[in-house]
From TrEMBL:
A Pfam match: PPR
Record-linked InterPro entries: PPR_rpt (IPR002885), TPR-like_helical_dom_sf (IPR011990)
Family: Belongs to the PPR family. P subfamily.
PPR repeats: 95-129, 130-164, 165-199, 235-269
NCBIfam families xref list: PPR (TIGR00756)
Protein name, as recorded: Pentatricopeptide repeat-containing protein At3g14580, mitochondrial-like
Assigned keywords, A-Z: Repeat
Length: 381
């Protein structure tokens, strides 16, 4: 694509002068879209819209709304009103979508009172505010901490027979969560279920984050089970926060179950997370022996192993001089965090389901030690 946008101007002028072509609204919609999205010529897009009657073509409400939305998305709020009031010149009949775009623009620039007034203008334009109207204003209110007003809009929706959707409830739950009103957020979620509205994954995730923020970890664990039954997978961050809370509470049985569930969903615990888990089970610090590549010279066996490690280290230093720096960095990363995390994950996944707590971590430690010795023997040989 040459992106020769000046040639479009030349061609359009030629068409207007010769008047041999009859152009459709779809044609102008595509031209305006090119000016707005590809060329970044917003002013030229506006000029094309108002120049359409000179081509004996009147814009549809779809084309008019596209230009309005383009101005809102590019934050040219002062121009939006100028274009809006000239709709009658183009023979455009204002619809609900057009008013929703105006509401969105006012909310983006913080003019919430004006947005309320526009929502009151719907009946005067023979339109009714829809779920998009209310969800846009609710989002702006929640972003500014005015959650009670947003909840009031939900009551107004019920009075005006506007059916709320998952986006509305997600917005309210998120707003309540940010204000640490967790119980109210859970009540909103229950209302979603009672109304028969189908919550989306974002709804479940917002409720889960609300419970985690409130440090209600056991409730969060049970809610995760509900999510999984609904085939909604919790995020990695959710697992991380939950494991952190269970470690702080020394809830080892629940920790075991959550970690196995995390692995089944394809998430690999990182080094820092394994450190926290092992530190929870071994508060005296004896677990850190599995993170060291050396052993103290307490007996002859350890002394021999250290000798092999020293020999391996010298060989590795010689090899490192012959490898690029990037490859050395990759090897250090693989031989450090990733191998340990993989060992722990695999051992944890395939251990007997009846093994819990310290016994499971002992199997992790044993498996890692065996793996480390095998790697050492392979490299030295």
């Amino acid at each position: 694509m040459t992106r020769n946008f000046d040639a479009i101007d030349t061609l359009m002028e030629k068409i207007k002068f010769e008047r041999k072509c009859r152009l459709s609204d779809d044609f102008f919609y595509d031209v305006i879209k090119i000016y707005g999205h590809l060329a970044g010529r917003i002013n030229r897009a506006i000029e094309t819209l108002f120049d359409m009657p000179n081509y004996k073509c009147w814009p549809s409400v779809r084309t008019f709304n596209f230009v309005l939305n383009l101005l809102v998305n590019t934050k040219q709020f002062d121009v939006v009103h100028k274009v809006y009031i000239r709709a009658s010149e183009l023979g455009v009949e204002i619809d609900a979508c057009c008013l929703n775009i105006i509401v969105k623009g006012l909310c983006h620039c913080g003019e919430l009172d004006a947005a309320y007034k526009v929502s009151d203008e719907f009946p005067k334009q023979n339109c009714q505010p829809n779920v998009r109207t209310f969800s846009t204003i609710m989002h702006a209110l929640c972003e500014r901490g005015r959650v009670d007003e947003a909840l009031g809009l939900l009551e107004r929706m019920e009075k005006e027979n506007v059916e709320p959707d998952a986006i509305v409830f997600n917005t309210l739950i998120s707003g309540l969560r940010k204000r640490r009103r967790v119980d109210e957020g859970i009540e909103v979620f229950k209302k979603v279920m009672l109304k028969g509205c189908d919550p989306n994954p974002g709804t479940y995730q917002e409720v889960l984050y609300a419970m985690l923020d409130a440090k209600r970890y056991l409730e969060a664990k049970d809610f995760m089970d509900v999510m999984i039954d609904k085939r909604v997978n919790p995020s990695f961050e959710s697992y991380k926060l939950l494991i952190h809370g269970l470690c702080n509470g020394k809830l080892l049985g629940d920790l075991d179950r959550v970690l196995r569930q995390m692995v089944r969903h394809g998430f690999v615990p990182r080094m820092g997370l394994w450190r926290e888990i092992l530190g929870c089970l071994f508060p005296d610090g004896d677990c850190w022996i599995i993170l060291r590549t050396r052993r103290t010279n307490k007996d002859e066996e350890n002394a021999q192993k250290n000798a092999k490690i020293e020999e391996f280290g010298l060989k590795e230093q010689r090899r490192a001089k012959m490898r690029p720096a990037e490859e050395n960095a990759d090897r250090r990363n693989i031989c450090g965090r990733n191998i340990f995390s993989a060992c722990c994950m695999v051992t944890w996944s395939f251990a007997s389901p009846g093994v819990h707590g310290n016994a499971r971590f002992e199997s992790v430690r044993t498996k890692y030690s065996e793996f480390q010795l095998q790697q050492l023997q392979l490299e030295v040989s």
